Amino acid sequence: MSHICLMIILISRTMKLLCSTFFLVIFLADNIKAQVMMKDLPISQDLYVSQLTTRIKGDYHRYLVKSMKPRHSKQSNYKEHRRIVMEEFTARHKLLAEKNASSAVSVKFPMYMGSDLGIFDYLVDIELGTPPQKVKLIVDTGSDLTWMNCTFMKNLTVNNDENEVVKPFNAEQSSSFKTITCESKMCSEQLSTLFSLTDCPAPVDPCTYQYSYYNDVLSIMGKFGKEKIYLPMTNGTQATLLNVVGCTDTLLGTAVKGGDGVLGMGFNMQSFGYRAALKLGRGKFSYCLVDSLSSQNVTNYLIFGERSKEDTMIVGKMRHTELILGIVADLYALFFKGISLGETMLDIPSEVWEVDEEAGTIIDTGSSLTFLYRPIYDAVTTALVKALSSHLEQVTSDSQSLEYCFNSTGFHESMVPRLVFHFDDGARFKPHVKGYVIDYKNDVKCIGFLPTEDRQSMIGNILQQNYLWEYDLFRGRLGFAPSTCI
What we know:
This protein is an alpha+beta fold. It has helices spanning 45-66, 78-100, 185-188, 272-280, 374-389, 461-464; strands at 6-7, 23-24, 107-113, 122-128, 133-140, 147-151, 157-159, 169-170, 178-179, 208-212, 218-232, 238-253, 261-264, 284-288, 299-304, 319-322, 333-334, 336-341, 344-345, 360-363, 370-373, 394-395, 405-407, 419-423, 428-429, 437-441, 444-447, 449-452, 456-459, 467-472, 477-482. It has a 6-stranded mixed barrel. A 4-stranded antiparallel beta sheet has the order 19-18-24-25, covered by helices on one side. Strands 22-23-27-26 form a 4-stranded antiparallel beta sheet.
C-alpha cells in the first residue's frame, strides 16, 4: 500500500463560520471489507506540511471564536433547560413538519469529497435562483449562514496572492432574489446571530454582514437576501425552500478554492439545515462521510427525512444517544461520561463532561481535528503515548500544535488500543484508529487531537468518517453506525 498522508488546508471563518478541510488517504473501517479508490497525492511534501501547519492554526482559531458566540442565559440544570427548549421547538414546528412532509419521500443531495476540485471538504451541488444557478457548497453542521460567492449591485472583489478564479452566483440575474432591508427587524434582531451589521445608510439599503478572519487571512463581506433553493426529492420531483442566504461580494485573502461557499446546517431558525429538516424531513437529516481520498464521482448523500437501506449499508445496529439542542448556542451538543482505551476507563474528572451554555462536547462537520478540553486531552494522550511508545520511537515533530509524534516504520493498527467514547445514556462511539493516530508526513504519525483550555470540546470530521450520522431534531437524539458510506 502506498504511503498514507494527510493534507489539511486552510479555509477559516469568523465567529461561527469556518470551513475546515481534511484529506486522509485510505480509511478502512474495522470489520468492514471494502475496496476504496486510491490515488497519488497532488501536492509536494513541503507544501503538504505547510498546509497542515496552517490548517491546525485555523482549527485553533475556529475553536476560540466559537466560544465567543452569543450564549443562552445560565441554566443550573441543563436537563430542565433542554426540556423547555424541546417543548417549545416541538410545539412550534412538529405539526407544520408533519403537514408538509410525507414519510415516503425525502430530500436527497449527493455528497462528495472535493479533492478533485482542490478542496478537501465535503460538498453538495445546490441549485438556487430563477432561473436556477448551480453552486458547490461545503456542508457544515457548525455554522448557520448559507452563503456563496456572489454579485449584486457590484462586481465580486477577490483580493489575494494566489490569483484564484472565483465563479460567483449572479443575484441580479435571479428574479427570485430579494434583499432584506437594513431597517427591518429581521436585520437588526433575527440576523444578529448571523452577524449582521448595524450600519444603515438608508432604510431601503440591503442588510449587510462582515466576517473578519484571524490574522487577516480572509475577510468576507456581503448582503443578506432571501432566495429560492431547489430540493431534489426521492420520488423524482423537486421542491423549493425560500431561505436566507448570504451574497458574499467581497473576499479579502484566501478564497474557498474549488467551492462556492458554505451550506449552514446549525440549529438556528435561519439555517438551511434546520428549515429543510422541518419543512420536508420530518425533523431529520443525515449524512455519511465517504473516505476522504474518494474522487468526486464517489458519493453518499445528505438526506432530509428517512434514509433507505439502499442509501447506506451499515455494520451492526444503529446506536442512539441524546442530542442536546438549544443549550450550547446553536451547536449540536453531546453528553459524555467517559473515555476508555482498550479495556481501561481513563481517569477523567466527571465535572469536565458538564453541559451548559459555555461547556459541553459538540459534533461538527466543519472542523477537521478533534479538540479536547485540557483534562480530557491530557488523559487521552498520556494513555496513547504509553501504548504507542512500546512499539514505535517517539520523534520531535516540526508541528507547533501536534504534540506527540512517532516514527511510523513498521506501524500497524493492531498496535493501537481502540478508543471508545462513552455517552451518559449508555451508548458508545468507537472511532476508527486512523481517526486519532494520523499521518503527518513520510514515516511520521501523530496523535490527532488538539488541546483547549476552554470547557467546550469538539468532535471533528476525522472521527466522523465512515460512519452514518442521523440527527433527529424532534426526538432530540443522534443515531450513528459504522459504514463504508459507499
